[in-house]
Amino acid sequence: MNEIIQKGRKNPKGWKGAYRYDSRLHASEYTFFHPEFGIYRIKEWQKNPYETIGVGEKLARKVDENLLKNRIGNFGIVRFNPKRLEEVEEITFKTMIKEGILKLELEGEMHHMPKPLDYELRKKNKKMDEKFLEMLQAERAFDGYA
């Protein structure tokens, strides 16, 4: 995520974002594209109502022109300015930061991932799915309740 934020600061325009729910792993996938920086994917799992865990990876250094032509929304990553937020609601902001709820703001349109795009990235995504499964197993996400 840090790399995406750094690249976003360097060139905030031209980012595209797509969302997909992976029903097989019960995970949300966020894919970010930039013609200059490539393709990134973040896969997250809602551990409980207050905590989300996940993995992320750079899937490609370049974005194929055909992928950029798909209907994918413009997207931006913007860090919060703490001074502005304190003016709005100081107590709420401090609580949200302390609890780790508020880290960054995602802004812009987000569309479901087109099927051809998902197919293009499937091979590269396999490695990330393996990391994600390891993380879920370490969290004992598949253990039943006794």
Q: How would you explain this protein's 3D organization?
A:
There is one protein chain. The protein starts with a helix and ends in an 8-residue tail after the last helix. The chain has helices at 2-10, 65-69, 82-98, 115-138, and strands at 16-22, 27-34, 38-48, 51-60, 73-78, 105-108, 111-112. The protein has one domain (2-75, 109-138). A hairpin with a 4-residue loop joins strand 1 (16-22) and strand 2. Strands 1, 2, 3, 4, 5, 6 and 7 form a 7-stranded mixed beta sheet that branches. It is of the alpha+beta class and 146 residues long. It is 38% helix and 33% strand.
Please summarize what this structure is.
The chain is built from 4 helices and 7 strands. It has helices spanning 2-10, 65-69, 82-98, 115-138; strands spanning 16-22, 27-34, 38-48, 51-60, 73-78, 105-108, 111-112.
Q: How would you describe the shape?
A: flat
What structural class do helix, strand and pairing data support? alpha+beta
Total domain modules: 1
Cα separation of the termini? 36 Å
Residue fraction in strands: 25-35%
Low-confidence stretches: none
Number of strands: 7
Helix/strand order: HEEEEHEHEEH
Mean pLDDT: 75
Total helical elements: 4
- Specify Rg, calculated over alpha carbons: 17 Å
The percent of residues in helical segments reads 25-40%
Write the layout of secondary structure elements.
Elements: H1 2-10, E1 16-22, E2 27-34, E3 38-48, E4 51-60, H2 65-69, E5 73-78, H3 82-98, E6 105-108, E7 111-112, H4 115-138
